Amino acid sequence: MTTTNPTWEPRRLTAVAVELPEGVAPPGTRGRILHAGLKLYADLGFHGTSIRQIAAEVGINSATLYAHYPSKEHILAELVYIGHDGLFRELEQALADAGPSPAERLAALVRAQVYSHTDYPLLALVANSELHALSPESAAPALTLRERSRQLLYEVLIDGVASGAFSVADVTLAGIAIGSMGVRVASWFGPDQPYTREQVAEAFITYAHNIVGAR
Amino acid sequence: MTTTNPTWEPRRLTAVAVELPEGVAPPGTRGRILHAGLKLYADLGFHGTSIRQIAAEVGINSATLYAHYPSKEHILAELVYIGHDGLFRELEQALADAGPSPAERLAALVRAQVYSHTDYPLLALVANSELHALSPESAAPALTLRERSRQLLYEVLIDGVASGAFSVADVTLAGIAIGSMGVRVASWFGPDQPYTREQVAEAFITYAHNIVGAR
DNA sequence: GTCTATACTTTGATAGAC
DNA sequence: GTCTATCAAAGTATAGAC
């Protein structure tokens, strides 16, 4: 193959709605740019997407983008931040609404993570898979939120072990395993498979309980 | 920010050895190109890497690359195939060496996947995270191997349920959960954390057994 | 096989009119 | 805010000498 087929473009996801959580998208053109960036970054990756593709998706000239964002990277930075911030808020709210037992609190976290990824799969994919394309300064706010989210899980696990509700040899590895189930959801959940978000969440809650030996 | 800082480059991984399994790298310059591609694709992604960077890493002129590979994509295609083929072979060998019980066979698969990712993290990362950058035709052989690897796991799970060794409501979701723990290993395992590959494997085997309710 | 030189395209971003 | 027009740089890949 010595030439590139211009009609083919790689696709990372089956077609799903390009959606952001309510209230987080800026109004007007800036918001439409953000949605277009979300769709294209999820599909082609940050480096695989050109500023002209984003503009075409919005229906504006590429130069107009720079009236709303100072660079291509700033569009990604906003998406990555929104994704991490949204997940962290969902996790915090889930804990606030959860019952007092460690098992209930762990279930609330797993459910919130699964729903976050099933409801906004493009956002989850971009936030997790394209973060590495950001400069350290642009990535820092999202990384702080990721660390805080991680802490929410570990506090629940540590409490559960301390109270005897959980029985697990290594809390860190158990947390990694539970988190791994969750972050992968956006990569396989979609309209081409038969499960509802609720079925996935309840199954993964059971697995998480099994992993930590919840009584 | 209106200009790009040419001295900064995004980094996806902490420094680890750039290694391929024995015997899979072609001899001579072609093999050195493959190693350079592995390192750079893992670090910067396929679209984030230029043909000139690969050539510079090898220490040759960029034009010389085309005496060994017909395109940038062919280098990635070979890496993605090697990664999927290597994992599949390891899984098959693990089953051949495993004891007869479903629990032993599941343990063998989990251990093989963990070792494959801890021993060749760059290869695992490129094979899984950059596959989407390939054309459908270039990706097909790897996808076939991935499906066959998936089947190995599901056969063990189905056997375990049929024999009463496992107790799990949904084999598909359990398989996804177990596979998710494994594919994430390359993203966090490295010299900056305290676990050995054996510790990770044994912990994940326990979690897998817990997920499927192994008796 | 490897090089120098270069063709040609696409890229991110800017200038300036309206 | 949006456009047309354009720049400078970087991109993949090729031609042809050695």
UniProtKB/TrEMBL annotation, chains A, B:
<dbReference type="Pfam" id="PF17932">
    <property type="entry name" value="TetR_C_24"/>
</dbReference>
<feature type="domain" description="HTH tetR-type">
    <location>
        <begin position="27"/>
        <end position="87"/>
    </location>
</feature>
<dbReference type="InterPro" id="IPR050109">
    <property type="entry name" value="HTH-type_TetR-like_transc_reg"/>
</dbReference>
<dbReference type="GO" id="GO:0003700">
    <property type="term" value="F:DNA-binding transcription factor activity"/>
</dbReference>
<dbReference type="InterPro" id="IPR041490">
    <property type="entry name" value="KstR2_TetR_C"/>
</dbReference>
<dbReference type="InterPro" id="IPR001647">
    <property type="entry name" value="HTH_TetR"/>
</dbReference>
<protein>
    <submittedName>
        <fullName>AcrR family transcriptional regulator</fullName>
    </submittedName>
</protein>
<dbReference type="InterPro" id="IPR036271">
    <property type="entry name" value="Tet_transcr_reg_TetR-rel_C_sf"/>
</dbReference>
<keyword id="KW-0238">DNA-binding</keyword>
<dbReference type="Pfam" id="PF00440">
    <property type="entry name" value="TetR_N"/>
</dbReference>
<dbReference type="GO" id="GO:0000976">
    <property type="term" value="F:transcription cis-regulatory region binding"/>
</dbReference>
<dbReference type="InterPro" id="IPR009057">
    <property type="entry name" value="Homeodomain-like_sf"/>
</dbReference>
<feature type="DNA-binding region" description="H-T-H motif">
    <location>
        <begin position="50"/>
        <end position="69"/>
    </location>
</feature>
